[in-house]
Amino acid sequence: MLQSSAGTPGQLGLRLQAFVCVLFLCVTPAALHPQCLDFKPPFRPDRDFEFCIMYREFGCCDRQKDQELMARYYRIMENFTERGHKSCAGFVLELLCQECSPFAAHLFDAEDPSTPLRTIPGLCPDYCSQFWNQCRSIIPFLSDYTPLKQAKDDQNRFCKLLELDDADYCYPHLLSNHKLNQNLGRVQKDSDGCLQLCLEEVANGLRNPLAMVHANDGTHRFFVAEQVGLVWTYLPDRSKLEKPFLNITKAVLTSSWEGDERGFLGITFHPKYKYNGKLYVYYSVEVGFDERIRISEFKVSTNDMNLVDHTSERVILEIDEPASNHNGGMLLFGDDGYLYIFTGDGGMAGDPFGKHGNAQNKSALLGKVLRIDVDNNDKGPLYRIPSDNPFIHEPGARPEVYAYGVRNMWRCSVDRGDPHTKEGKSRIFCGDVGQNKYEEVDIIEKGCNYGWRAKEGFSCYDKKLCTNSSLNDVLPIYAYPHRKGKSVTGGYVYRGCEHPNLNGMYIFGDFMSGRLMSLKENTNSGEWKYNEICMGMGLTCAFPGLINNYYPYIISFAEDESGELYFMSTGTPSATAPSGVIYKVVDPSRRAPPRRCHYEPLPVRVRSNLIQFVPQESKSTFNTNRTKLFNSPFLIWRKGRGRKGKGRSRSLSELHNGVVRLVRDEFLHGDRGRVEIYVHGEWGTVCDDLWSIKNAEVVCRQLGFKYALKAARNAEFGEGKGLRILLDDVHCNGTEFNLLNCTHAGVGNHNCAHYEDAGVICGNSKPSAEA
C-alpha cells in the first residue's frame, strides 16, 4: 500500500483521516454540490482501494479506477531519481487521486459538460506554490496542456492557471471546509428539515396519467394509463409506441370536467404475465342509467406483444356506484399471488349509505379492500375466494372482503422489502383520502377495520360510531391535517438500486397541495418519522438532465421493473388536458457504484412507429452567480413558515424580482389564479386597475404559456390577504419581460384594496375568437 513521503503532503494521512471523520458525521445541513467527472453524484465503492485510500469510503472511483490511477502513478515516477521520488511522490499521488474526490467535477472545472476538462485539479495558492517550488519538473508528465507546460517556469502564471473561480473547492483546503463536508453522502436537508431531492423528466404530453406499471417480463417496458381509457407502451429508452397498448375510450365513463373522479382508474399485470399474457383493469362504466365500476381481464395479442387483444375482455366483477365520486381505482397483486381491489365508499360525503355507511358494512363491496384468486380461471368461475380470506365464515359478509372501513384509497403499493435483509417485504401501503380534516397512510392487514366513517385519521368523524367499543379499528401509520393538503396520493417504499440513501423511505404526495412527503420507519420503536420533500435548492440539482420543479397536481406514483421510483402529475386536472408528466425521483447526494445497477432488457419486437422522447424542461443552466434558471410553465412554489406575507419558494434558493406565481384557493395552480409577484424579498399582489389582456399576456408568457385567455378582475381567484399590494395601475403593451418592465405606480404605491386583486387564465390553445 502506497504512502506519501513528501514534506507537507506527507501529512496527507492526518488530513484525510479528518476528512473521513467529517464525511460520515450527521451534522447540521449545508449547501454543497458533490459531483464526479461523469457528471453524476459520488458513491460508496464496493471494494477496498490500494492507491487512493483517502477516498475508499466515499468518492468518485471504484476499484478499477483506483488501479488505473496507480498504474499511471508508476509510469510517471519511472522518470525520476530516488531524490525526485522522495520529493514529489506525495504530490503526484494527491493530484492523481483528486479524480476520486467527491468534488472531482469542481476540482477539474467539469460541472458544465461543454467546458474543457482540466488536466491538473484546481489548487489553493499556498499548496500550488509549494508544489511548484519542489516539483515543477514533473508538470509535463502530469499534463499535456500547452499553456501549463509553457508556464512551468513562471510560478505566478502557473498557479494563476490552476486557480478555481470558486475558491471554496480548491485542493487541499476543501478537505477542511466544514461547509462542504458536513453531512456529505447523505440526503441533504434545508433549515426546516425538508429533504432535497431532484427529478428527471421521463414522459410528457399525457392526459391525466394515473397509472404506470410494468409487466415484470424482463423487457423493462412501462405502460402508462390515461384517465380517458388509453394505455401507452414505453420502451426502456423512453420512446413511446405510436399505437396504444389498450384503447377502451368508448367504454370508459369520464368527462373533461376538472376533478372528475370517474374514468380508467387502474391496471395491473398478472404475476405470470410472461407466460399467460393476462392483465386486469379497473374503470368506470355507464350501464343504462347506472354508473358502475368494472374490473376486467384482458389478454395480450398473440401477434403483437405491444397490443392487447380487445376481444379478450372478460368482466370479472362489477359494482354499482351510487355517486360519481369516491370510485377507488387501485388494482395490484400481492406477494401471495392474489388480486387486491381497492374500492371507494360510494361517494357523496360522510358515507351516508345505510345505518353505518358502506365502509363499515361487510355485506357491501364498497369502502373495502377485496382479495380474490384469478388463477386458473379459463374454465369455471372467473375468480375464487382465497381459503384464508377473513370473513368467509361470517354470516352476511361478502367473502371477497379482506379489510374494511376505508373511504377512498387512492394509490397503494407492495413493499419489495430491503434488498439485503428482505425486511418489510409484502407489506401493502395505501393512501386513504379524507373528508374534512385529515388524510392518512395505512398498512393493509387481513381482517382489519380502518375506521371510516367512525374515524378520519386519528380523530372521530361520526362520534356515535367512534365510541362504539366493538369498532376495534387500526390506526393509520401517519395522518396529516388539511393545512398540508386535501387529497393524499399513496406512494411506494423505495427499494431500487440507484439511490441507496432512499432505501426504506415511503414517498408519497398530495394531489391538491402538490406536496411531496416521506415516512421512514424506526425498526426498533415501530414509529414513522415524517419529512417533507422539497426540490433541491441552488446547485443541488445541477446535474445534466435533472430538474427541480414539477407540475402541481400529483396524481400517482409508480415503480419500474428495477424498482426505481416515479410520480405522475399534471398542470390541469382534466381527463382531456395533455399536460401530464412523469418524473423519476433522484437523490443527488449519493448514487450506487458503477455497474451495480446494470441490467439487460429482453428484446421487444415493435410493429408500431416510435415517438422519441423530447423533454419539456431544458437542462439546468447557470448565470455568473450560479443561480438556477427554469423554463417550466408550472413551478411548484410553497409558502414558507416565515413571517406572514413573506412567501418562500421550496424550489429555488434565490428568486429574482418580477417572478410571478398563480394562486387559487390557498394552493398554487398552473394555468389560472391570482397573480402574485416577488419584489425585493417578498411576495405581493397586483391591483386590477388598468388590468388588461396585454398585462395577462406578459404574465402567461413568463410562465411558459403561449396565450392569455383571460385577464381576471375583482379578486376572481380570491383575495391575497396577508400580502402587501405591490403593483397598481399596471399598463403593458404585451411584449415586456415581466410586470416590473411595464408602466406602473411604483412598487408598493397603490390606491386599491384586495377585493381588486388581479388574476389570469393562461393556455397553450388559441382563444376561441382567434381559432
UniProtKB/TrEMBL annotation:
Disulphide bonds in the chain: 732-742
Pfam families (alphabetical): Folate_rec, GSDH, SRCR
Domain of life per record: Eukaryota
A GO term from the CC aspect: membrane
PROSITE patterns (alphabetical): SRCR_2
Residue ranges occupied by any SRCR domain in the UniProt entry: 660-763
Location relative to the cell: Secreted
Protein name: SRCR domain-containing protein
Species whose genome carries this gene: Poecilia mexicana
High-level lineage: Eukaryota, Metazoa, Chordata, Craniata, Vertebrata
